[in-house]
Amino acid sequence: MCGIVGYIGARQASDVILSGLRRLEYRGYDSAGLAVIGDGGNVSVRREAGKLDGLVNMVKSDPVDGLIGIGHTRWATHGVPNRTNSHPHTSMNSRIVVVQNGIVENYLTLKEELQAEGVKFVSDTDTEVIAHLAERFYESGLDFVTSARKTLQRLQGSNAVVMLSPEHPDTLVCARLGNAGGITLGLGEGEMYIASDIPAILDYTRQIVFLENGQMSVVNQNEYVVTALDGTVLEHEVHNIPWDPVSAAKGKYRHFMQKEIAEQPQSIIDTLRGRVDFDKGTVTLPEMNLTAELANKINKIYTIACGTSYYSGLVGKFLLESIARMPTEVEYGSEFRYYDPIVDDKTAVLAITQSGETADTLSAVEQAREKGATMWSIVNAFGSQAMRSADGYIAMQTGPEIGVASTKAFTTSITDQYLLALKLGELRGVLSAERIAELVNDLALLPDMSGQVLNDEAQYEELAKLFHRVEHFLFIGRGINYPIALEGALKLKEISYIHAEGYPAGEMKHGPIALIDETMPVVAIVPQDDLYDKMISQVQQSKSRGGTVIAIATEGDTRIENEADHVIFVPKTSKYLQPIINVMPLQLLSYHIALRRGCDVDQPRNLAKSVTVE
Ligand code: F6R
């Protein structure tokens, strides 16, 4: 989970940068660096692999004086975590220096283009292309800001970028592309701050500007301007972040749930960091302690979880069985203990738990362990029991989830199960290196696609206006999207108190279709996959019983508009990753319906975030 801090003003830039990066340490990282412009326009760069203390000691023994600089904590995606791959990255002639959060999806094309022109690359990162590209524009005679703008226009993917040029010691340029990497400006008196997350700069200022997707800012010591990437100056709001820590953490959002829904593109990137190498097409999960011997010995996984985490496990069953050919059962923690499940030393129990402290889940896995099972966990809360007691774990790396209704933990835990399926498939010899590389490649577009889904909140407000008085809802889906119907229904019922049921669409005719009339809207998940025609037929059956259908459908699907009453279009990804994209509209729909009903979205009645009792 990379962090960015930038500063221009009257203080020593390195002090501000190091203290800001320290505040972002909780997000996790594997290397750190900074660049400061000193007197005479010399830029000093210090970078170190490992923890921030390494960089701090480096700066202590070899200080960097200067009043403008940028810093970064990196979590590797392209290239191993070493000093050379750490940010900031400097262009060939040292005229541009860059830090970046996110993934430059088209970096290979850009790299080849630059190499053909004689540019020498020193790191394995995607970020380095940004520095060289900007320098190429700069050396063609454009000014620094225009060079930065032209460079940003060529990047694909979701990123936050900050650049400086030693020849312009009065200017920082920053930008946000897509919805993954956040970037904020902090306004001071005669000084300006830039940060990926506001905790990094809240010690210095509470006046915050949040850059939106496709916006950039040119920042000087006393002024700044927010523009579109074509240079058009944009109106923007300055938020006064109150002093209490809760409001500070909420930032510009009205509720934590809304913030956490919006954070998903970033939390997916963070989940991939350090684990996926897009160049090599490989996955590493060091904390899982997996060996080929263990992966081949295990002949069954019991996924154990509760609530939303249980539904994530149901999606994971598809992934583990289809991708890794690993038989997988999914059980509620609260029920597993009261069966007599067949568990032995060839069984792995996989606990999925955001809090890592859910009593039902923990007791169930403990019981399986006593019978000899290997215990794995996918867990968000760092240091929680589910992490401490596991033989192997995957940390969700999504940051704290505060809203009681789980959102980002759902999508990141599915992503983690996808990675686990790839790793197990590799170790069990059921996936070729080429197939793994293809499946890894599918992940690259996921953050940006999630950002696209979350872009248009207005359509959910409209639907909420129409449907917030309804007392019953039905959610239907099939195959890997059936658990998404279950999760959509759970989200709605827990925060809006509307009765909602999730059903596998094929089961409708065996009973639930009797419920359908004009008072019971049906939310149908209808992606263009191999079950499309069957889902269309369910939509038609619901319509012919007087039901109103809201469809979640694939962009470009022209047929669905004639079949359903309302359509929410989402981008198409691989069938294994599509559930992650499909659930996001359901989260937003629930959120806006609950809001209209005046419910306490973050703390719904009768519910707690961490259920530590049985
Ligand atoms: C629903 C929700 C709950 C939790 C469940 C398990 O939005 O948040 O259903 O998913 O209580 O919690 P964890 O994942 O912490 O074990």
SSE order and pairing:
Layout: E1 3-8, H1 13-23, E2 31-37, E3 43-49, H2 52-61, E4 68-74, E5 89-90, E6 97-102, H3 107-116, H4 128-139, H5 144-154, E7 159-164, E8 172-177, E9 184-187, E10 192-195, E11 207-210, E12 215-219, E13 224-228, E14 239-240, H6 245-250, H7 256-262, H8 264-272, E15 276-277, E16 282-283, H9 292-297, E17 300-305, H10 307-324, E18 328-332, H11 333-336, E19 347-353, H12 359-370, E20 374-379, H13 385-388, E21 392-395, H14 408-427, H15 433-444, H16 446-453, H17 458-467, E22 472-477, H18 482-496, E23 499-504, E24 522-526, H19 532-544, E25 549-554, H20 560-563, E26 566-570, H21 578-596
Parallel strand pairs: 17-18, 17-19, 19-20, 20-21, 22-23, 22-24, 24-25, 25-26
Antiparallel strand pairs: 1-4, 1-10, 2-3, 2-4, 5-6, 6-7, 7-8, 8-12, 9-10, 9-11, 11-14, 12-13, 15-16
This protein binds fructose -6-phosphate (F6R).
Mean of residue pLDDT?
93
Sheet with the most strands, sense and barrel status: 8 strands, antiparallel
Shape: globular
The unique ligands bound to this protein are: fructose -6-phosphate
What is the helix content? Answer: 25-40%
Q: Treating each run of at least 4 consecutive H or I residues as one helix, how many helices?
A: 21
Number of strands: 26
